[in-house]
Amino acid sequence: MPTLILLRHGQSEWNLADRFTGWVDVDLTPQGEAEAKKGGQLIKAAGLSIDRCFTSVLTRAIRTSWLALWAAGQTFVPETKDWRLNERHYGGLTGLNKTQTAEKHGADQVKIWRRSYDVPPPPLAPGGEFDFSKDRRYAGADLPETESLKTTLDRVQPYWEGEIAPHLKAGETLLVAAHGNSLRAIVKLIFNVADDAIVGVEIPTGNPLVVELDANLKPTAARYLDADRAQPLPAI
C-alpha cells in the first residue's frame, strides 16, 4: 500500500537567528544538517525503500532531502523540486526578527499573523531586498505578496492532487522534504483536519512522519520515527 514520509527541513540559519524566513533562501546550520542526516538514518533503520522524492526550490529543504537520502543509502532516488512546496510567504514580515516584531506590533498581533489559519501578514512591498519576482525559480508563476496557512494550502493542494497523489495511488513510497507550513497543508488534506485545529499541529524538524495510506489515500496508520521528539498527530 502507498506510504508517505513527510520530513521538515532541519534547523536553518534564520531559524537560529529568530528571523521570519518564508521564501528567503537560507542554508542549514550544522545542527540542521545533523537533523537531516538523523532523519535519513531513521528511514534506513525502519526499512523504508523510497521510490521518489519531492521537495521545494529552497536550499534548506533540498539539502535536507539530499542528506536524508544519503544517510538512508538511497541517493539514487528521483527527485522533483517545485516552488509550490515552498514555505509560507511571510509578506512584509520577511527578514524581520520575531522578538523585535512582537515588541513593535504586540505579541497578540504577531501571534495572529503567525498562527491563525486565514489572516496573512501585511504584503511584501515590491522592489525591495526580498522581492522574488526576478528570481528565475519563479519565472511564469503567479507569485503571492503574502500568505496565510489557508492560501499556502491553496497552492499546495493542486500540486498534491496533480503531481504527488498519482504516485501514491500507484502504490509508491514517497519522501516529501519541505517546510513546516507546506507540510501542515498536506497533513490537513490527508487527515481532513478542521481549520481551527490545524493551527495547533506542529511538525518537528528532521523527524520523519510516516503515514501509511489505503487505496483512497486515507491514513490507516501514522507515526514519527523518532518517538522522543514526536508531536501529537491528528486522529485517523
TrEMBL record:
It catalyses: (2R)-2-phosphoglycerate = (2R)-3-phosphoglycerate. The record marks 179 as: Transition state stabilizer. GO terms for biological process: gluconeogenesis; glycolytic process. Pathway: Carbohydrate degradation; glycolysis; pyruvate from D-glyceraldehyde 3-phosphate: step 3/5. InterPro entries: His_Pase_superF_clade-1, His_PPase_superfam, PG/BPGM_mutase_AS, Phosphogly_mut1. The active site is at residues 9, 87. Substrate binds at residues 8-15, 21-22, 60, 87-90, 98, 114-115, 180-181. CDD domains: HP_PGM_like (cd07067). Its EC number is 5.4.2.11. Keywords: Gluconeogenesis, Glycolysis, Isomerase. GO terms for molecular function: phosphoglycerate mutase activity. Catalyzes the interconversion of 2-phosphoglycerate and 3-phosphoglycerate. NCBIfam families: pgm_1, PRK14115.1. Belongs to the phosphoglycerate mutase family. BPG-dependent PGAM subfamily. Homodimer. This is 2,3-bisphosphoglycerate-dependent phosphoglycerate mutase. It comes from Phenylobacterium soli. The lineage of its organism: Bacteria, Pseudomonadati, Pseudomonadota, Alphaproteobacteria, Caulobacterales.
